[in-house]
Design a protein that fits this description.
The chain is of the alpha/beta class. It has helices at 2-5, 13-29, 49-64, 86-91, 124-143, 182-190, 200-208, 219-225, 250-254, 258-292, 303-324, 326-336, and strands at residues 36-41, 69-74, 97-101, 147-154, 158-162, 176-179, 194-197, 214-218, 233-235, 243-249, 296-298.
Length: 338
C-alpha cells in the first residue's frame, strides 16, 4: 500500500503541472454551476423611488452573493407589464418578480390596498409603524399566491397634479382625474371628480390626448414622469403615503440554497432601510425640482378641498374594512389612534 500512496510523488514538477493543466481543461468543458439571474421590472422610471429601490437591490444582491445571484432590471414599463399584471407575469415565468405599486394589487387581496387608504397616515414615522404591523398580512397575501415578499418602499405623500389651480371643493367636479387604485377612484368620484383607476402608461396616454386634466400621485411619481409639461399645479392634500412591494416568485427563491436565500433576504432588508432613508429628504428634493420646472405648489391645500375628500373617504374606508377582514381593520383602528 505504501508504494501506491507515494505514487504521486514520483511525478516531476513538469508532470504535475501538465496534469493540473489537463484537469483545468476538463473542468472548463463541464457545465459550470449555473448562476441565477432574476429579471425584475417596475412600471416607473429608474430615477423614481421604485426604480431606485430595484437598482439598490440588484447591487446588494450581487455583492452579498458574490455574483451568484444577479438581477436584471427593466424600468419605465419597458416590458409592458404594469403593477397589477406583475404577479401573473411572475407565475407565468415572464419575469422572476418586480416592484409593484401595492394599490394596484388590491384586486388579488384587499389588504394590499391598506397603504392607499385616504388620510390614514400623515407622517413618515406613522407610515413605517403601520406598514410594520401590516407586513405579516402582506407576506401571507403574497405567499398564498406563490410569491415571496422581499422589501417595501414607502412613497412620499400623494397630492393632486392639475391643469388649473384648485381653489377649493367646488373645483373637484372640473377634474377628469387619474386615480391610482380602486379605493382612490371611489373616493374621488364620491367627492365629485370624474375619476378612473388607470395604470401609469394608459394614464400618460390619456394625458397627452387631453382626456385627463389631473393626476392623483406623489411629487415623486409626477416628477419622474415630468407631469409639469401638462399639469403645472400641485396641491399637497397629503392623501396617503402608499407603498410599493418588491417580490419574487416563491419557486425561484426556493431554488436557491439556504445560504443564498439568507443573503438575498439580507440584501432585501438593506434595500428597505436604504429606501426609508431616502424618503426622509425625498419630498423636499421633489418640491425643489418641481418648482425649478415651473410647478406651483399649494401647501397647505385649501381646507374645503381636503374636507370634501375626507368626507368622501368615509364610505370607501368602511367598505374596505369589511372586505379586508378583522386583522386589517384592527391595524387601521390602531393607526387612527396614534
Amino acid at each position: 500500500m505504501l508504494p501506491d500512496l507515494l505514487l504521486p510523488m514520483r511525478f516531476s514538477a513538469t508532470g504535475i503541472r501538465a496534469i493540473l493543466a489537463l484537469a483545468a481543461l476538463i473542468l472548463s468543458a463541464l457545465p459550470a454551476t449555473a448562476q441565477v439571474n432574476w429579471r425584475m421590472t417596475t412600471e416607473y422610471p429608474q430615477n423614481n423611488i421604485s426604480g431606485i429601490g430595484l437598482s439598490t437591490f440588484a447591487d446588494r444582491v450581487a455583492a452579498r452573493t458574490n455574483g451568484f445571484v444577479t438581477v436584471a432590471n427593466s424600468f419605465d414599463n419597458e416590458l409592458k407589464i404594469n403593477s397589477g399584471e406583475m404577479p401573473r407575469a411572475a407565475l407565468d415565468g415572464r419575469i422572476a418578480g418586480g416592484d409593484a405599486f401595492a394599490g394596484a394589487l388590491s384586486g388579488i387581496d384587499p389588504v394590499l390596498g391598506l397603504s392607499t387608504l385616504p388620510f390614514l397616515v400623515q407622517s413618515v414615522d406613522l407610515a413605517r409603524a403601520t406598514n410594520a404591523r401590516a407586513r405579516p398580512l402582506y407576506e401571507r397575501a403574497f405567499a398564498d399566491r406563490g410569491l415571496k415578499l422581499l422589501y417595501l418602499t414607502i412613497w412620499p405623500a400623494t397630492g393632486l397634479w392639475s391643469e388649473q389651480a384648485l381653489a377649493g371643493a367646488d373645483d373637484l367636479p372640473k377634474l377628469n382625474l387619474r386615480a391610482y387604485d380602486a379605493n382612490s377612484s371611489a373616493v374621488m368620484r364620491t367627492a365629485g371628480a370624474n375619476a378612473q383607476f388607470l395604470p401609469m402608461d394608459k394614464a400618460l396616454a390619456g394625458l397627452k390626448d387631453h382626456q385627463l386634466n389631473a393626476f392623483l400621485t406623489s411629487g415623486d411619481g409626477g416628477a419622474g414622469r415630468k407631469l409639469w409639461d401638462f399639469l403645472p399645479h400641485f396641491t399637497a392634500i397629503n392623501y396617503a403615503m402608499p407603498v410599493s412591494i418588491a417580490f419574487v416568485r416563491t419557486e425561484a427563491f426556493a431554488a436557491l440554497s439556504e445560504p443564498m436565500q439568507r443573503e438575498v433576504m439580507a440584501a432585501a432588508a438593506e434595500t428597505e432601510q436604504s429606501q426609508f432613508a431616502l424618503l426622509a429628504h425625498r419630498t423636499a428634493e421633489n418640491y425643489a425640482r418641481m418648482r425649478e420646472n415651473g410647478v406651483n405648489i399649494a401647501e397647505p391645500a385649501p381646507q374645503s378641498l381636503v374636507a370634501a375628500l375626507r368626507n368622501a373617504a368615509t364610505s370607501t374606508i368602511a367598505a374596505w374594512e369589511a372586505q379586508a377582514g378583522t386583522d386589517a381593520a384592527g391595524i387601521v383602528e390602531w393607526a387612527r389612534q396614534q
